[in-house]
Specification:
There is one protein chain. Helices cover 36% and strands 22% of the residues. The protein is of the alpha/beta class. The chain has three domains: 2-163, no CATH class; 167-302, Response regulator (Rossmann fold), CATH 3.40.50.2300; 307-374, Arc Repressor Mutant, subunit A (Orthogonal Bundle), CATH 1.10.10.10. α9 (313-324) crosses α12 (363-374).
């Protein structure tokens, strides 16, 4: 357990300080062919990496060893595959961002002589290169680093590096869905810097990794919801983009006790995510919503959204309670209204939804079918 915690600390620190950005700056022109050897940090084929050694100037040391596709530490204890994956992704996707200004070279060179994290990569058991990771760049979209290789030795001056792709934290309580989303995001070129199954876990991971975007499932089971997490994120940061996933066609279907999603969020119906295109669109939208507008955008299948748009919050709430099995009297008590108000609301629902019934089906059954269709339960009558 101790070594596992040490791995978590070092790997999160490694990935966290390599702040990711899809926004690149114009690179300064290469200063001669010899300079290219000092910016070749990446390892194209990370499957050949057999060992990673992470150490800092305070004496912390961790060895990650790969044997037959599995990773363990120097004591033979298994290590978390996601944490190793983060480091391997960094090794593959790291890219040159720019040179340090001449006036900053000496200061950062001296700083990195005493404060850095060293990450050494071994291929087929042989050391190939080491990174010396210093502080983030002033714009926090890159990292000041030194490179050491067997051929060129250790570079004299640090350069600015970054990782291509958007950094994302996935918050989803279902482990299989997390794995599916993680694979899809990597296919899109994103870097998954953390995963969580609860709000508490998510807040810890987000604080450690500072991602550019958080992908959140609206329904996280017992306890705080994805909406609660989205609001907590927005209270502390206007920079982190938020995309919320749900089986519901809109957040109101979870209940009126849930506040609207925070400003600038993008809401995506899970059924619409049949490939990377929908998430790519949502990510672009999340990055382009002005704070002042305070809008929640929606990317969905399109079906039934025109119906939901016609319904008031009270109507959506009563529709949900009918589907849950409550009588009119029970609904009235829960919503603190009189029973006649509930009856009138149901009558308006039936009219607006154009509910058609016959002698074998009553109106409440049809309304229940409509609700389950809206929340993504297959087999209910089509709208």
């Amino acid at each position: 357990m101790k070594s596992y915690k040490k791995l978590i600390g070092l790997s999160v620190l490694l990935v966290g300080i390599l702040v990711l950005s899809i926004f690149t700056i114009d690179l300064l022109k290469t200063r001669g062919n010899s300079d290219t050897e000092w910016i070749n940090f990446s390892i194209e084929d990370t499957t050949k990496i057999t060992k990673i050694v992470i150490e800092d100037t305070y004496g912390q040391h961790m060895e990650l060893i790969q044997e037959h596709g599995n990773w363990h530490d120097e004591k033979g204890e298994c290590v978390s595959k996601p944490n190793v994956s983060f480091i391997l992704e960094a090794a593959k996707l790291i890219e040159f961002k720019g040179y340090l200004p001449d006036k900053s070279k000496k200061r950062f060179t001296e700083l990195m002589s005493t404060q850095h994290i060293k990450v050494s990569y071994y291929i087929d058991g042989e050391w190939t290169k080491s990174w010396y990771i210093g502080p983030p760049t002033q714009d926090h979209y890159g990292q000041i680093m030194l490179l050491e290789t067997e051929e060129a030795g250790k570079s004299s001056y640090p350069v600015m590096m970054s990782i291509s792709g958007m950094s994302v934290v996935i918050v989803e309580d279902d482990s299989f869905t997390r794995l599916t989303l993680s694979s899809l995001l990597r296919e899109m070129g994103c870097v998954v810097v953390g995963e969580a199954g609860t709000v508490a876990q998510a807040l810890e991971v987000i604080a450690e990794t500072q991602p550019q975007l958080v992908l959140i499932d609206l329904d996280l089971g017992e306890g705080p919801t994805g909406n609660d997490l989205a609001h907590a994120i927005r209270e502390t940061s206007r920079d982190i983009k938020i995309v919320v996933l749900s089986t519901f066609l809109e957040p109101r279907l979870m209940g009126s006790s849930h506040a609207p999603l925070p400003d600038g969020s993008v809401f995506v119906v899970k059924r619409s995510v049949t490939g990377p295109e929908v998430l790519e669109q949502a990510f672009r939208m999340a990055g382009s919503v002005p704070d002042s507008e305070g809008r929640v955008l929606a990317v969905s299948l399109g079906e039934s959204r025109h119906i939901l748009a016609q319904l008031s919050d009270a109507q959506v709430d009563i529709l949900r309670l009918i589907a849950t099995g409550y009588s009119n009297a029970e609904i009235a008590r829960r919503l603190v209204v009189n029973e006649r108000t509930v009856e009138k609301t149901i009558a308006r629902l039936i009219k607006q939804l154009d509910v058609q019934t016959d002698k074998d089906q009553n109106q409440r059954v049809v309304l229940t079918q409509i609700y389950f269709r809206l929340i993504g339960v297959v087999g209910s009558r089509n709208l």
